[in-house]
Write a structure and sequence with these properties.
By secondary structure, the protein is α/β, with parallel strands linked by helices. It is built from nine helices and eleven strands. Helix 3 packs parallel to helix 9.
Length: 254
């Protein structure tokens, strides 16, 4: 999700489903984004580094990511990017023009929210970039690791908190009702950045709401330790049996 500080999401009357998830599963109460603007946060959460990116421009990154780790390990992945055009699209954006892609409202796709296509190991390999698919193709059991980005309306970037909450209320049951979730799958819902410069350990992207949804979690539990996008990457790598990357090695898993 996009561009909202923790305090504008948790307890917001416009986000009852998010509060329901927090009551049913777990909420990280001291989680911070890496920086501003959007793009370096997306890169950080899949690579453990911002690669020095300080804008939302088009960057082709020649370095490791969780996507290249999974490919090397012979494990599959998917990136479900709502309203992404087909054919390994590498453009900056694509207007949905009223076209629905899966659940929620129509909205635009932007490359800056699609971290997989930023890495040359993906964009330069047709087999790898074919793993970036529209949301209508979503299958919660398709791969061990799946990265999901709603379009600009449903992720709250252009849409409202209420619209983002409605999207999650429609979409999340497809995961929590799946065989993959029942078998021990974990869903993490987070935001790219907040609206302040708050943070520690080099983070200055603001405090953001982050939910951990897993059937074995005690309802209403809270993760009070400091965490950030590098912690999230470390958690995913640990769950998948992958070595840590860059700054993720300096963090504990959630």
């Amino acid at each position: 999700m996009e561009n909202d500080e923790y305090g504008s999401i948790v307890g917001n009357p416009s986000a009852p489903f998010i509060d329901q998830l927090a009551a049913t599963y777990s909420l990280a109460t001291d989680y911070y984004a890496t920086t501003h603007p959007s793009e370096p946060n997306y890169v950080a959460m899949v690579s453990g580094s911002t690669f020095g990116i300080t804008d939302d421009g088009i960057h082709d990154l020649d370095g490791p990511s969780i996507f290249s780790q999974l490919a090397t390990a012979g494990l599959g992945w998917r990136a479900y990017e709502q309203n992404v055009p087909g054919g390994c699209f590498t453009g900056a954006s694509a207007d949905a023009a009223g076209r629905l892609d899966g659940l929620g409202a129509s909205g635009s796709y932007v490359r800056k929210h699609d971290p997989a296509i930023m890495f040359t190991s993906v964009s330069g390999d047709p087999g790898q970039c074919a793993q970036i698919q529209p949301l209508a193709a979503f299958d919660p059991g398709a791969a061990p690791f799946e990265f999901i980005t709603p379009n600009l309306t449903n992720d709250m970037h252009d849409g409202t908190v209420a619209q983002g909450n409605a999207f999650l209320a429609a979409f999340v049951p497809a995961i929590t009702g799946s065989a993959a979730f029942a078998a021990g799958g974990t869903l993490v819902i987070t935001f790219d950045e907040g609206t302040t410069n708050d943070g520690s350990l080099g983070d200055n992207g603001g405090q953001i709401a982050t939910l951990i949804v897993q059937k074995s979690i005690a309802p209403g539990s809270r993760i009070a330790d400091y965490a950030d996008h590098f912690s999230l990457l470390r958690s995913a790598e640990d769950l998948l049996g992958l070595p840590c990357l860059a700054a993720a090695c300096d963090r504990s898993p959630l």
